[in-house]
Write a structure and sequence with these properties.
eight-stranded mixed sheet; 11 helices; alpha/beta; Rossmann fold; 274 residues; globular
Length: 274
């Protein structure tokens, strides 16, 4: 099986549109021919299934309880995106131990289907699950808006991930902007702080415009990519997905638990006796 590109989508605070970015990035990657697996990693307050109009019968809580295997939770949504749903309103799922996070990451090795991309929609903030799942991913995409609280919390998130997860490179998406120029200004405000206090590298990879159609899609519990494919936000998600296909991923192990780590291992040499 081919190595899987793993993208963690995260944010310093809620309300910045992180999950919409995860869902529509996944949809656009699938539209471009990628086999996409989307994990709802907001373990205690899951809502990816709601945004996709899906009704799963099993989720990650059942996996941790030993009631089913990870493959039993898979459900197919728009454009063939395969979702791994989580639970909602379960406090114990939001307070998992590091060992339980590791079990979830390792469970991906049991999946037999071939995927090109795994998108991990983490919780907002700096919880242990955000650190664990970001460390286990190859790319960390941070969603921000122009709000001062969003930038302050994004800085805090980047600081924690750099210190506790060893993440040094971050990809930034500016959401709900009026123009690319505004996105650049927001990004530069964040960079001004990180360059002064942190040893990290930030790259602006996307600017998603404020779009009334996106709000309408949320109300109808469908991805905007599916309901209104010609809108400006969908075009921006498409550009983001196209850029993501060009991101270089390391195929070597980094010394800690990673999603689909076994697919990074070199194939064993086969010797033929004469």
């Amino acid at each position: 099986m081919n190595p899987v590109q793993v993208i963690a989508v995260t944010s310093g605070k809620g309300g910045v549109g992180k999950t919409n970015v995860s869902v529509n990035l996944s949809c656009q990657l699938a539209r471009q021919g990628k086999r996409v697996l989307l994990m709802d990693a907001d373990l205690g307050l899951a809502n990816v299934d709601i945004l996709m109009g899906l009704r799963p019968t099993r989720n990650l809580a059942h996996v941790l309880a030993g009631e089913c295997e990870l493959r039993d939770t898979l459900i197919t949504g728009a454009f063939g995106v395969t979702l791994i749903p989580a639970a909602s309103g379960m406090r114990n799922m939001a307070d998992l131990s590091p060992a339980q996070h590791a079990r979830l990451v390792q469970a991906f090795s049991t999946l037999e289907d071939d995927y090109d991309v795994l998108v991990v929609d983490t919780a907002a903030g700096i919880s242990d699950s955000v650190v664990s799942f970001s460390r286990a991913s190859q790319h960390v995409l941070v969603v921000i808006t122009e709000e001062p609280t969003s930038l302050a919390d994004a800085y805090g998130l980047i600081k924690v991930l750099a210190r506790d997860a060893g993440v040094q490179k971050f990809k930034i998406v500016c959401n709900m902007v009026s123009s690319d120029a505004q996105a650049r200004k927001i990004f530069e405000r964040l960079c001004a702080v990180t360059e002064r206090f942190l040893d990290v590298h930030l790259t602006l990879v996307g600017a998603i415009p404020r779009d009334e159609f996106l709000r309408k899609a949320v109300a109808r519990q469908k991805p905007v990519s599916e309901l209104f494919p010609a809108t400006e936000s969908v075009q921006a998600f498409s550009r983001l997905a196209m850029a993501a296909t060009q991101w270089r991923s390391s195929n070597s192990l980094r010394g800690h638990i990673e999603f689909f780590f076994e697919r990074m291992l070199p194939a064993p040499e086969v010797s033929i006796a004469c």
